[in-house]
Amino acid sequence: MTRYRIRTRPTQPFAGERTQAVPGRGLEFYELRGYTQGDEPRFIDWHAYARTGRLYTRIFQAEAPARFTFFLDGSKSMLLYGKQAYAERVARILTRLARPEGAFLWGGGRYRGQLSWVEPGPAVLLKQPRPRGVTVLLTDGLDEADWPRMLQKLWRVVLIQIMAPEELAPRFAEALLHDVEVDQRMEVGQAEIQGYQEALEKHLLLLRTIARRLGSYALLRVGEPIVPALLRQGVLEER
């Protein structure tokens, strides 16, 4: 596990890097400067020497700790299909990986040192100051929140959407459903199921697009192996 870390570089090219635009030891190239005695030979740019006849040293950007803030969705829909327990497993894995860089857990309206759920759900983040560093948001994404506004406010986001297979692909033809978020019941048939699936696809695309511009995104199905899924979808990367 220690060879992985949480990806903070945007999947799509927007701001959010770990690196800082100052000289230091990192992986991202910063600039060339004239060679001075004591520079490590492995950083000499021999291509520049071949072109100019002068020695230059490659300088790299410094890496800064990302500082992660974790938020676990506490809305009522997370209590269904084992999503809460699964989300806690995901959070324990990610906080263990993030701890060397600084991890804070959001709970009860403040930062604390243990996992805690927040009611009424992600919308509470619209009423709070922007968390420091990168926000890791674990949610099913079903809360009736202004998701574009909330994600843009957070700015640097790792969005992990956790859903049950039954939510992604309902297996019934007709049913009486209970919406726990708004406490309403409704009869559904084939037309409603098709409308639900079309609306869900648009919603998933919206969250995925915004999150990848601000950081990274993964959709996890309850019960699937966590680390392979996060690696495959770009939330985790090799150190």
Question: Which descriptors apply to this entry?
Answer:
elongated; two-stranded antiparallel sheet; 6-stranded mixed sheet; 239 residues; single chain; 6 helices; alpha/beta
Q: Please list the strands of the largest sheet in the order they lie side by side.
A: 6-5-4-7-8-11
Strand proportion, as a percent range, falls in 25-35%
Poorly predicted runs: 13-26, 107-114
Number of helices: 6
Distance between the termini: 10 Å
Radius of gyration over all CA atoms, rounded: 22 Å
Proportion in helices = 25-40%
Strand segment count: 12
Rounded mean pLDDT score: 78
Largest sheet: 6 strands, mixed
Question: What characteristic shape results from the CA principal axes?
Answer: elongated
Class derived from helix and strand content: alpha/beta
- Encode the helix/strand succession as letters: EEHEEHEEEHEHEEHEHE
Folded structure, characterized:
With 239 residues, this protein is an alpha/beta fold. Helices cover 28% and strands 31% of the residues. It has 6 helices and 12 strands. It has helices at residues 46-52, 83-98, 147-154, 165-168, 190-214, 226-232; strands at 4-6, 19-34, 56-63, 68-72, 103-107, 110-112, 134-139, 157-163, 175-179, 184-188, 215-221, 236-238. The strands form 4 sheets. A 6-stranded mixed β-sheet has the order 6-5-4-7-8-11, sandwiched between helices. Strands 1-12 form a two-stranded antiparallel ribbon. Helix 3 runs parallel beside helix 5 (190-214). The longest helix is centred in the C-terminal third of the chain and has 25 residues, at 190-214. The protein is elongated and about 80 Å long. The chain starts with a strand and ends with a strand. The relative contact order is 0.18. Residues 13-26 and 107-114 have low confidence and may be disordered.
